Amino acid sequence: MIECARAYKPGSFWGQREMCGLVGIVGKSAVGPAIYDGLTMLQHRGQDAAGIATLDGKKISLHKDNGLLRDVFQAQHMAELAGNAGIGHVRYPTAGKDDKSEAQPFYVNSPYGIALGHNGNLINTEELTQELFDSDRRHLNTQSDSEVLLNVLAHEIQNQQTNCLQPAQIFQAVDQVYRRCRGAYSAVALICGSGIVGFRDPNGIRPMVLGKRETEKGTEYALASENVALDVLGFELMRDVQPGEAVFISIDGELHTHLSEERKVHSPCIFEFVYFARPDSMMDDISVYKARLRMGQALARKILRERPDHDIDVVIPVPDTSRTAALPLAFDLDVKYREGFIKNRYIGRTFIMPGQNVRKKSVKQKLNAIDLEFRKKNVLIVDDSIVRGTTSKKIIQMAREAGARKVYFASASPPVRYPNIYGIDMPAPAELIASGRTIPEIQHELGADWLIYQDLEDLIEACHEGNRNITRFDTSCFSAEYVTGVKEGYLERLQQLRSDQAKSERRSSKVAILAG
Description:
This protein has 516 residues and is α+β, with helices and mostly antiparallel strands. The protein is 33% helix and 23% strand.
């Protein structure tokens, strides 16, 4: 059932659709299976919902639902996704509603028919929602900022007032999106009768890459959140989409690009390199794998500065993300590296679980300790980051139960003290273990014998070394420096929206509505 147009209510706070994975392809034959295969390489970016939209002539076919790709798409669904152009999306649950109405891509039928997938978060959603309702007269069905972004784009395309949409007019519409929308957004949009446009926010906070593939029938182009999605499909990585750049691929396979005057200082999210991106990805010409190696080397230098006579017997990573940093850390400390935790690969990422009780239970289901690697040893456990501290505290407890004499804990990133407003659903500040606490207090809270955090300067240098042309990273969750600026009161409302209590109340309300 489609809801009637939702009136904007002053003071309401709309949901956010955040860390996601995107694929868009214009090919010379059916692209549905290729989009599916590309999304499988981005499943780490979203485990909650998935969707694919394809264009066959002037008809858009769309299928989306909650769940992993393998659960959402069956053979009959793929058979219905005809056409040589299409986009795909995977997401994980964040601060908005958790029902399938907010699975992407979103679709509007005016003008032309447009489907859009979005990775990131708009920080002026309230103002845009009011504009869409009062001035643009656009219909909104959900509380997702991605649907807001789609409607802003659709309105600006409609303002071009033409029956034959040209690349220049699409780029003019995207320029208007840049002027109106603040925050982080890499997006791909499928325009009926025209092709695919991909664009990246003026600061380039969220990633997007462009690739091509030569076939017997001609050249095919693809856009994706990470180049690993291109690799599996045999696409050659051409380059990253630049901050404030729009890329249009026409339905007949012609490539057009436009760099907006609205572009600003390139500021990619540093947490992508710490945690979210796959290690085999290149992002903004920086090898994620090499950056994580350098993070481990920097941690080793800090440990040797602070405790040159350390008594660490073994370094053990928390699988999987921290392995890359833990290896050079152990080497530079001249101590053994061992795998001490075995991961259950059928359990998702714990800091994105919907509630604290679920997270606590899932940690034990996710990891199991090998007692022999801990027994009577001073163990340094390495993780990529510490967010709520729930997982870290449980891991330290598991190490002690396995017989460790002392348990030291190292984070490859600095203390996470502030909310990320650009597309990572970190909890309310009160639920961040580092918020308002000193490092000794965090150490005591976790139950570690010694807690070592990466210095922010070292983290920045570990990434910066890969591409000296990037002069600034978004480090807001560590530094509270928001590259777009933040309107007064936004962080306070975000805290209310993101707290576990608020999320629990929304789920209870949804259950009550369904029961009624």
